[in-house]
Design brief:
single chain, mainly beta, four-stranded antiparallel β-sheet, three-stranded antiparallel β-sheet, 7 strands, 31% strand, DUF4183 domain-containing protein, DUF4183
């Protein structure tokens, strides 16, 4: 027994026609890989009082002891106590990191500025 929904009916409405365009064959790679990626990391500890950190505040023997200008790198990430901070919460200039948040990290909190250059 055939269900009446699937029964063949004669209709004046033509069947839909689906036409897919043929794509031209092009290069298989959609993007190019960067030739080189360099990452520099500036480490310091909060003293619990200041918002401005300079290259002189770097922890000796950990990462780089310089804060690069934003124009010299592709992008930067700031981590305070291991938490990624939004771009609005800090500012970077040559040799200087300014924390713009209302509160200041407590004394001894690690502050890590990651500077990435993609060539």
């Amino acid at each position: 027994m055939e269900h009446h929904f699937f029964a063949k009916r004669k209709s004046l409405i033509p069947q839909p026609f689906l036409s897919l365009p043929k794509a031209a064959r092009g290069p298989r790679r959609l993007f190019t890989r960067p030739q080189q990626v360099d990452t520099l990391t500036f480490y310091t500890l909060s003293d619990g009082r200041k918002r401005v950190y300079t290259s002189a505040d770097a922890l000796q023997g950990h990462g780089t002891e310089v804060i690069l200008a934003p124009e010299e790198v592709s992008y930067m990430n700031l981590f305070i106590n291991g938490i990624l901070q939004s771009k609005q919460s800090y500012a970077v200039a040559q040799g200087k990191l300014v924390i713009r948040t209302e509160d200041i990290p407590i004394k001894g909190t690690p502050i890590i500025l990651q500077m990435v250059t993609i060539r």
